[in-house]
Design goal:
By secondary structure, the protein is an alpha+beta fold. It has a single domain, classed as Roll (3-methyladenine DNA Glycosylase, Chain A). The protein is built from five helices and ten strands. Strands 1, 2, 3, 4, 5, 6, 7, 8, 9 and 10 form a ten-stranded antiparallel β-sheet that branches. The longest helix has 8 residues. It starts with 5 loop residues before the first strand and ends in a 6-residue tail after the last strand.
């Protein structure tokens, strides 16, 4: 069996804490069918966010930190649904719900490599074709671009089920995971998250070390001042078995 082999994700695989599940998404794919266009994006960078009271550490960076609202309602549902929210009033960002239903854990899909459907993504992102090497790299590099690439929009597609792949508002989404987890995983503070939630106290950003599609790091408001260490952001994780 190829070490790159994939399988459809199950709810059971997403039932753990976000910080435990997040590295398992790396090297997997989010596959979507929107407006007749099929797109596959290999996940290269993700961030974990715990729900209110989820796990041993409260997460001040989570949308669920103050409880259930109309905006974050999807996070409180069963794992495997996609929480699609609007960032800065512009960007539709895609998260997969994880953890037990009612605990509101989530994993933000920050970046990936478009492995199929690049022409459709170029149209969505209004990128000139033929695509240069740099343009191809950047198609889904960063959460706003990722959301555009897969064609999922807030609020239309918020709540779509990536486990069953059932049609939802004219779209379908499927999450696929690697049979063998990526071993060369780096971890560090989350990107652009304010205050202590954006420091090494929460090293809940995970990425494939050395992958060119991973987005650049930037501090959130006040995070650098709160940081325990302002240099050497990110660290290699030990290899993980299945």
């Amino acid at each position: 069996m190829s070490s790159d082999a994939l399988h459809r994700a199950t709810r059971a695989e997403l039932s753990g804490l976000a910080v435990e599940v997040a590295p398992r998404l790396l090297g997997g794919e989010l596959r979507t069918l929107v407006a007749g266009a099929e797109v596959r994006v290999r996940l290269t960078e993700v961030e974990a966010y715990h729900g209110q009271g989820t796990g041993p550490q409260a997460d001040p960076g989570s949308h669920a930190r103050m409880g259930r609202t109309a905006r974050n309602a999807t996070m409180w549902g069963e794992p495997g649904h996609l929480y699609v929210y609007l960032s800065h009033g512009i960007h539709s960002c895609v998260n997969v719900v994880c953890g037990p239903e009612g605990q509101a854990g989530g994993i933000l899909m920050r970046a990936g490599e478009v492995v199929d459907g690049a022409d459709a993504v170029a149209v969505r992102r209004r990128v000139a074709t033929p695509l240069s090497k740099t343009a191809l790299r950047d198609l889904a590099r960063g959460p706003g671009r990722f959301g555009q690439a897969v064609g999922l929009r807030h609020p239309i597609h918020d709540g779509i089920d990536a486990i069953t792949g059932a049609e939802f508002e004219g779209a379908r989404a499927e999450l696929w995971l690697r049979d063998e987890p990526i071993t060369d995983v780096a971890t560090g503070p989350r990107v652009g998250v304010a205050g202590v939630a954006g420091t090494e106290a929460f090293p809940w950003r995970f990425w494939i070390a050395g992958d060119p599609t991973v987005s650049p790091f930037r501090w959130g408001r006040g995070a650098q001042a709160e940081s325990l260490h302002t240099t050497g952001v990110g660290s290699r994780m030990p290899s993980r078995g299945r």
